[in-house]
Amino acid sequence: MYHQYFGLTEAPFSIAVNPRYLFMSPRHRDALAHLLYGVGAGGGFILLTGEVGTGKTTINRCLLEQLPDDTDIAIILNPALNAMELLATVCDELGITYDSEKHTLKTLTDSLHRYLLENHKRGRKTVLLIDEAQHLDFDVLEQIRLLTNLETNSEKLLQIILIGQPELAQMLRRPELRQLNQRITARYNLEPLSLEETGAYIRHRLQVAGMNPGQEVFPVAVIRGIHRYTRGIPRLINVLCDRMMLGAYGRNMGRADMSMLRTAAIEVMGEESDGSRDESSRFWPLAAVAGLLVALAAGWWWQNRQLPPAAVQQDTAATGTVAPVDTVVSNPAPVDSVPAQPAAAAQPVVVPAASETVTPEAPAPGWLLAPEEAWLQLWSLYSPAPLPATPCAGQVQDGLACVEGSAQTWDELSALDRPLLLDMITPERFAAGSVFLGSNGRSAWFAASGGVVEVQLSELGPAWTGRYRLLWHPPTGFIRPLGIGDNSPAVAEVAMLFAQLDGQQQPLAGTRFTPGLETRVRLFQRKYALEDDGVVGMQTLLKLNEALGIDPTAAAARDLLARQSGDMVNR
Fold it and tell me: Does residue 358 have a pLDDT over 50?
């Protein structure tokens, strides 16, 4: 459904365990290392706990893939068994024969013991893995502990891995289970993802599903909200992101916003979600104090404000007098430059009639444009086609793709070396846009209605939100990075672009990405200080388009606008 709308090959946030989407955070790697260490140590218990959805099953899969070939494993996925049923299931998993009609705990234990001894003689290890172990009864746990008594003079014959929710660790701390708890040789509690890991996890899944690395569906503020609602639990992140992408698709939008996050959280976790409730209960005193300060400030302003003309008229009509003020000027100068007038020199205000003009507000600077006008300025630098209704909808339109990003410094914008649309906010807190055309020390060039203007960065800083958008011409059919072995029309177009760059008539590849094309890509990447991995991603293509003149640089864009307006721009 929505994955095609976003240019993906499949839905990225399925809750099914798919090895292709494996994301190993530092804490997941630590958990896996503890399990592998415990297995290697031989004998005893290994304990892995973690909240629901934190990735314990993912760790299990990784462990099974990394166990040595000389290991036999029995996996118990349904621990709601009594002691005899558990032993019978272990024997079934290991292929141990027993009398299914007349078995007892003793006969099952004897059969298992014989199998373990024979396995040990063959130089093989045996591992028992029990998932959802928090559901085990006390007598079953005691029977499991007795299995570790099966040993030789040098080592235990059975390694047991218990995996469960945090209450499993609490249960094992009970006095009657202290013998089992003392036999745990490795234990690890898998914590949820941090805020940074949550963002990396979301980007990882999107890129595996085929999303361009430069495309952003979940802005930074939305990711913070996702982490707050989900507390960093991967399964909840998957469900919430899946619902948000479906919402963006339904609204024909290219990225999610906070309203979609709130709606998805209500649908997925209910209106009184833990994240929102915890945050509100934690910060409501601060909000109350802030509200009180705002109210006090508003009251002070109300008492000290200068009455507008309409208020003066009302005052005159009510009292028959004219309200005095200290001074009257037709075009007010800055406050610091108006000389103070003594009270005796106060003159009456002449109230203008309704038809007379009141002094207008200061006009917005020429570089601060309405969002639609800013988009039109940027689009016209790339294409003569009309501006689409939604130019950044996450799909190629008229051969142009839109990339949304964020930056913290002007240096990051200058490094892109291309015209950018910056998300701005007016002093009145209305949305606006500005077309950035490169920087010059502590100033920058911007597109304006009359051409190009140079503005001090100190003047720009308070208005810029940190968000930007850029346009570029991707190769036809380009939906994800291209590398050795890929076969698509996009590969043929990339090879043709490099042939044009080198002045060669014969490209290095057809539709299949060849080693020769990979070598050429690496040389190009080294020349422009890109990561020389031989993979053609968006950064490589942006630089290739720039080298071929397909996309304008910041300098070329401001020269074009300057020529169109007749202005001279110093570069």
Answer: no
Q: What whole-number distance in Å separates Cα of residue 252 and Cα of residue 32?
A: 41
Closest CA relative to residue 469, chosen from 403, 372, 377, 388: 403
How is residue 66 written in tokens?
């990394």
Q: Are 210 and 8 in contact (CB under 8 A)?
A: yes
Q: State the Cα–Cα distance between residues 338 and 516, nearest whole angstrom.
A: 74
- Give the tens place of pLDDT for each residue, 454-476: 888 888 888 898 889 999 999 98
pLDDT at 59 over 50: yes
- Enclosing H/E stretch for 135: none
For residue 354, what pLDDT is reported? 39
* Terminal alpha carbon distance of the chain: 48
Average of per-residue pLDDT across 355-381: 71
* Range 256-264, long-range pairs (CB < 8 A, 24+ positions): 256/217, 256/218, 256/219, 256/222, 257/219, 257/222, 258/221, 258/222, 258/225, 260/222, 261/222, 261/225, 261/226, 261/229, 264/240
Which residues have C-beta within 8 Å of that of residue 292, sequence separation ≥ 6? none
Tokens of residue 147, six digits: 């299995």
CB 381 within 8 A of CB 550: no
Q: What per-residue confidence (pLDDT) applies to 405?
A: 85
Q: Strands, DSSP E only, in 368-492?
A: 401-406, 420-425, 431-440, 443-448, 451-456, 464-472
Amino acid, res. 252: N
Count of Cβ atoms closer than 10 Å to residue 166 Cβ:
15
Contact 315, 323 (CB under 8 A): yes
Across residues 540-563, what is the average pLDDT? 88
Query: Would the CA dihedral through 134, 139, 143, 145 be positive or negative?
Result: positive
User: Which of 52-61, 196-205, 525-534 bottoms out in mean pLDDT, i.e. has the lowest?
Assistant: 52-61
- In sequence order, which ranges of 194-338 are alpha helices (DSSP H)? 195-208, 220-230, 234-250, 258-269, 274-304, 309-319
pLDDT in tens, 94-111: 998 888 778 888 888 888
What is the number of H-type helices and E-type strands within the chain?
A: 21, 13
DSSP, collapsed to helix, strand or coil, labels residue 432 as strand
